[in-house]
Design goal:
Blueprint (H helix, E strand, L loop, with lengths): L1 E8 L2 E8 L3 H8 L18 E7 L6 E7 L4 E7 L6 E3 L10 E2 L8
Amino acid sequence: MELLITRTIGKTIYRFAFEGTTLHDVLMKSQHIAFRDVFKCGLCESDWLFLRAYITKEDKYEYVKIVCAKCGGQVTMGKRKDDGAFFLRKNDQGEIAWEKAPEKPAQD
């Protein structure tokens, strides 16, 4: 059994496929995509958004972010420890926690 879920990030539609032997298996796996569609940057309202993934060199932590190609805004997704589900980080007001990308140090 297979279940396809789509999420729209900016102008891009991402398709996620989940397989299992029962409906319960498939639904449990699909719940790892615990974030909703994001159509615009929370800082500049551009729809030029992309999902990015990386692993830190020093600690080997895995991260997924939504990044705005126009202003550099970003929101880092959280990852639950118990089941590995990804979710959008929120601020104290319950809104997506958009922030400016950190400044890169100057090269001498």
